[in-house]
Protein: Ferredoxin
Amino acid sequence: MSDTQDPYENLKITTGVVAEPNTSRANKTGSWREYKPVVDPDTCINCGQCETYCPDQAAKPVEGEDFYAFDMDYCKGCGICAEVCPTDAIEMVREEG
Structure:
């Protein structure tokens, strides 16, 4: 038998409580971003891959145009859109300030 004490012996396990559930639409998450997506409208083929894979639903088609843009209030800058873009029309650029 070992003389070392189990560090988890007196660990109190609790459950988390969500007092008021929300969605990312209620909680603007764009301020978390270090990088932002910049779309080249001439390269974008309007395929919608960015919108499909965006975890925050920040990618939206520009009305009357053939390219997508991002709602910076909700974009966290994860870069998934740039990774899935088949034409490399999205470049992740470091945020200023």
